[in-house]
Design brief:
Strand content: 15-25%
Strand order of the largest sheet: 4-3-5
Number of helices: 4
Largest sheet: 3 strands, antiparallel
Structural class: alpha+beta
Distance between the termini: 37 Å
Number of strands: 5
Radius of gyration: 14 Å
């Protein structure tokens, strides 16, 4: 699929994104995130890996649009911030391990 990120056109396929993120350790999620395989990555980290551009060159919205169109599940943080979105210690530990938190 052709998409534009930071004014540069890219031909992205979901298999290319999966291959590019294979073996990449997820950073702690503080903003928008995307679920790739069983791991949740910050969209800026994924954007930097797949485009090989500096994170300051593109917005998270551009990457969210592209990844959503490719079929990945993205979670966006509301414009008001994450005031009511506190996570439990179990969820934080699960996120660091790349596993879903079970209740």
């Amino acid at each position: 699929m052709r998409c534009v990120i930071a004014r540069f056109p890219f031909d992205l396929f979901s298999s290319d994104v999966l291959d590019a993120m294979k073996g990449v350790k997820p950073e702690p999620v503080t903003g928008d995130s995307v679920l790739i395989g069983r791991r949740r990555y910050p969209v800026k980290q994924v954007g930097a890996v797949i485009t090989r551009q500096d994170r300051r060159d593109f917005t998270s919205g551009e990457v969210v649009r592209a990844l959503t169109a490719l079929g990945f599940t993205c979670t966006e943080v509301s414009a008001g911030g994450s005031a009511g979105a506190e996570i439990t210690p179990l969820q934080a530990a699960s996120a660091l391990m790349g596993l879903p938190a079970s209740a």
